[in-house]
Write a structure and sequence with these properties.
By secondary structure, this protein is α+β, with helices and mostly antiparallel strands. The chain contains 3 helices and 14 strands.
C-alpha cells in the first residue's frame, strides 16, 4: 500500500474516531434538543380584593375567575443531565391584593411523585426572578448575568410541611439509630418552614437557601393535574436578596420551571420557559 494512501486512511480513521467520541460525550446522559427562540410573553398581574389562607387550601374558585396564560416549555439543554421528558404547557395565573402577590401554576402529570429516596425523585416547580437590572440572555443559566431569586416548591416538602408526613428514618451514616424520632433534639432532621424554598443563584452551581425564607406555597394533585400556589408579601425584606414588586411600574421578568419526578428530573434536568414579562396593575 502506498505511503500516501496509508496517511489518508489514518487521517480519516482519526477523524471518525474523534467524531464518535464527540457524539458519545453529547449523548451519554441524554439527547440534546435544539430549541427555537420564542417571543417574550406578557402577563398582566391585576388587583383582586381577595386573600388566600393556604392553611385552608389553594382557593380554586378565586383562580377560576382569573385570565390564564398557557406557557410553552422547553428542554434544559445547557447542563447535563438533559431532560428525558417535557412538561408543556404550564398554565399560569397571578394577582395581588396590594399586600401580597400570588402565583398559580398548573400542569398535567399522570403520577404524583412526592417521595425522595435513592433513585426516586419528587415533582416540583419554580419561578425565577432576576434581581439585578442587567440584560438576561437566557432563562437556562439561573441568573448568569446577575443575581436571581428563585422560589421552588417541592411535592415531598409540601407533604411534610402541610400534612406532617416526613420520610421515615431508618439508617444513618454512622450507625443504625431507630429512636431519634423520640428525642427532644433530633440532629438528623431539619423541619421545613414552608413548602417552598426561597433561593438565590448567580449562575449554575451557586444556588443556595436565603437566610430568611419568606415565600409560602401549597400544591394539590387531583386527576392527573398538579395545582400549585405561591404567596409572598409585596414588600421585600432585603433589597439585595428579594425580588421587588412595583405596582404600575415598569415590566419585570420571570421564568417558570417544572420537574417530573417520574422521569427522574432533578437539579438541571427540568422543563423551563422563556422569559415572561409581568405587569402589575394598580
Amino acid at each position: 500500500m502506498k505511503k500516501g494512501t496509508v496517511i489518508a486512511i489514518t487521517i480519516i480513521s482519526a477523524g471518525l474516531f474523534l467524531a464518535l467520541v464527540n457524539y458519545g460525550l453529547q449523548h451519554s446522559r441524554g439527547t440534546p434538543v435544539e430549541i427555537e427562540d420564542t417571543e417574550t410573553t406578557t402577563m398582566v398581574v391585576p388587583f383582586k380584593d381577595n386573600q388566600i389562607d393556604l392553611g385552608e387550601g389553594i382557593s380554586s374558585d378565586i383562580w377560576d375567575g382569573l385570565n390564564a396564560k398557557n406557557i410553552e416549555m422547553m428542554y434544559q439543554v445547557m447542563v447535563l443531565p438533559w431532560g428525558k421528558s417535557l412538561i408543556s404547557p404550564v398554565t399560569v395565573r397571578a394577582f395581588h391584593n396590594n399586600k401580597d402577590i400570588y402565583f398559580y401554576m398548573s400542569w398535567k402529570d399522570e403520577t404524583r411523585d412526592s417521595t425522595k429516596k435513592t433513585n426516586k425523585f419528587h415533582d416540583a416547580c419554580g419561578i425565577m426572578f432576576p434581581i439585578e437590572k442587567k440584560e438576561q440572555p437566557s432563562t437556562i443559566l439561573m441568573g448568569f448575568m446577575g443575581k436571581a431569586n428563585i422560589w421552588q416548591w417541592k411535592s415531598n416538602q409540601n407533604k411534610e410541611y402541610w400534612f406532617n408526613k416526613g420520610v421515615e428514618i431508618k439508617s444513618y451514616a454512622d450507625f443504625h439509630y431507630p429512636f431519634e424520632d423520640k428525642e427532644l433534639f433530633p440532629v438528623s432532621k431539619i423541619a421545613p418552614v414552608s413548602a417552598v424554598n426561597d433561593l438565590l443563584a448567580i449562575r449554575i452551581g451557586t444556588i443556595t437557601h436565603k437566610n430568611e425564607q419568606i415565600v409560602q406555597g401549597r400544591g394539590i394533585w387531583e386527576n392527573g393535574i398538579w395545582q400549585v400556589v405561591f404567596k409572598r408579601s409585596l414588600e421585600h425584606v432585603s433589597i439585595e436578596d428579594d425580588v421587588g414588586f412595583t405596582l404600575g411600574g415598569e415590566k419585570m421578568l420571570c421564568a417558570f420551571a417544572v420537574w417530573n419526578g417520574a422521569t427522574k428530573d432533578r437539579g438541571g434536568r427540568k422543563s423551563i420557559s422563556g422569559w415572561v414579562e409581568l405587569e402589575l396593575t394598580e
